[in-house]
Design goal:
alpha+beta, Nuclear Transport Factor 2, Chain: A, 6 helices, 187 residues
């Protein structure tokens, strides 16, 4: 009887260990290393662009944009991509109507404001990446409406691409454009 139990145990152990399959090759591949230097370089370009915008330096703003820039404005326009001159005209319009334009980067949470610049993703799995191709920008713009002297603020989100030449080549902006008018009209 001992021999039978021993033999059955040996067969069971053999069966369990022989059924174990190796992990697929893609699961065993090393995780790609994030390119932190490229990310920081792109964030520096975006930060310098926002600084030039706050300083109303249209020449610097123009020089920082690719001539083939594609821009999606914050207001709905049928999802039409606009160009460099369209963005510069919009920025000039804000300069003409607002003073003391200030940028504060960061995601606003109940506890704090942190992490204004993000890139890469782990979800969804099919398109996960650690390359900083598109930079997600979160923050708040504050200014004073020139005509009324009223302060305004707008939570802001953008997707920005910086090309190999260090110029902004695409931007898709998101903020409540109507919210600016409501703040100006408010008593």
């Amino acid at each position: 009887m001992k021999n039978l139990v021993f033999c059955l145990g040996a067969v069971a152990l053999l069966a369990l260990t022989s059924c174990k399959q190796a992990a697929p090759a893609e699961e065993m591949a090393k995780t790609e290393t994030p390119d932190y230097a490229a990310f920081e370089a792109k964030v520096a370009v975006i930060s310098a662009f926002y600084k030039a915008y706050s300083e109303e330096d249209m020449e610097t703003l123009s020089n920082m944009l690719s001539d083939t820039l594609q821009w999606s404005p914050p207001q709905y326009n049928g999802n039409q991509w606009l160009g460099k001159e369209d963005l510069l005209a919009a920025l000039k319009n804000y300069h003409d109507n607002f003073e003391d334009i200030q940028w504060t980067s960061g995601v606003s949470t109940p506890q704090t404001s942190e992490g204004g610049y993000w890139s890469g993703s782990v979800f969804p799995e099919g398109s996960a990446t650690s390359t900083p191709n598109d930079i997600r920008v979160y923050g708040t713009w504050n200014a004073t409406h020139t005509e009324t002297g009223k302060p305004i603020g707008a939570k802001f989100f953008a997707l920005i691409t910086v090309n190999e030449e260090g110029k902004i080549s695409s931007a898709s902006d998101y903020f409540d454009v109507n919210g600016l008018a409501v703040q100006i009209a408010g008593e």
